[in-house]
């Protein structure tokens, strides 16, 4: 409405049955708006809440291995779903150990399964990418009305993720580890990725 005296602005607001609200007191000249004050205050509170919600978004992490057992897989997926359902992004990481490094294609098989199993909860932000002895990818939550968790019944608050602890022990280890170290019993790796039907809960 242009520059006018505070009195003229006040009278204009009154004539419209609205309120004169100062929104930039430190500007020169100060900036005001003619609005419904109650509605304006509500919208400001809503905007502040949304901004706070966005700023609270964090990047959570869930770790897998090539030979993650179906039971552990389900619990990890339930944990990922919980993170996504609270609005957090999830970084999925798969660490290779010992002879697993010779079969990195199996790691991508696991990552592909994770993407498929979380498709009702998340969208892919960053494609699975190999970096050294690990594969990583990032998922972000779908809009809330589109989320359909599948692994909720497997959630376990008391579950201790051994991969979190074991990774620290092996991060600095040699890539050519022998058959009796990281991979366990020395059995061939090929074909040991559990079938998807073993890990995905039955509908």
Describe the 3D structure:
This protein is an alpha+beta fold and about 200 residues long. The chain has helices at about 5-15, 35-55, 70-85, 105-115, 160-170, 195-200, and strands spanning about 20-25, 30-35, 60-65, 90-95, 120-130, 135-140. It has a 4-stranded mixed sheet with strand order 3-4-6-5, with helices on both faces. A two-stranded antiparallel ribbon has the order 1-2. The longest helix has 19 residues, at about 35-55. It is elongated. The model is unreliable at about 165-200 (pLDDT under 50).
Q: Note poorly predicted spans.
A: 165-198
β-sheet strand percentage: 15-25%
What is the terminal separation in angstroms? 61 Å
CATH architecture of the largest domain: 2-Layer Sandwich
- Count of domains: 2
Largest sheet: 4 strands, mixed
Structural class designation: alpha+beta
Order of helices and strands: HEEHEHEHEEHH
**Fraction in helix:** 25-40%
CATH superfamily membership of the largest domain: Translation initiation factor 3 (IF-3), C-terminal domain
Number of strands: 6
Shape: elongated
Cα Rg: 27 Å
CATH topology annotation of the largest domain: Translation Initiation Factor IF3
Mean pLDDT: 79
Number of helices: 6
CATH class of the largest domain: Alpha Beta
Strand order of the largest sheet: 3-4-6-5
């Amino acid at each position: 409405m242009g520059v006018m005296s505070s009195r003229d602005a006040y009278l204009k607001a009154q004539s419209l049955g609205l309120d004169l609200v100062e929104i930039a007191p430190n500007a020169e000249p100060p900036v005001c708006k003619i609005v419904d004050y109650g509605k304006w205050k509500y919208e400001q509170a809503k905007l502040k809440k949304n901004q706070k919600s966005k700023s609270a978004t964090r990047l959570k992490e869930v770790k897998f291995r090539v030979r993650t057992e179906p039971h552990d897989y389900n619990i990890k997926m339930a944990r990922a779903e919980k993170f996504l359902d609270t609005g957090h992004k999830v970084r999925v990481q798969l660490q290779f150990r010992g002879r697993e490094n010779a079969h990195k294609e199996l790691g991508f098989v696991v990552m592909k399964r994770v993407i498929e199993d979380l498709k009702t909860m998340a969208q892919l932000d960053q494609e699975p990418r190999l970096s050294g002895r690990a594969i990583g990818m990032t998922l972000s939550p779908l809009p809330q009305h589109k989320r359909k968790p599948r692994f909720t019944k497997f959630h376990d608050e008391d579950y201790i993720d051994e991969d979190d602890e074991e990774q620290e022990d092996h991060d600095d280890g040699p890539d050519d580890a022998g058959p009796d170290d990281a991979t366990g019993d020395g059995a061939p790796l090929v074909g040991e990725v559990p079938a998807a039907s073993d890990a995905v809960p039955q509908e």
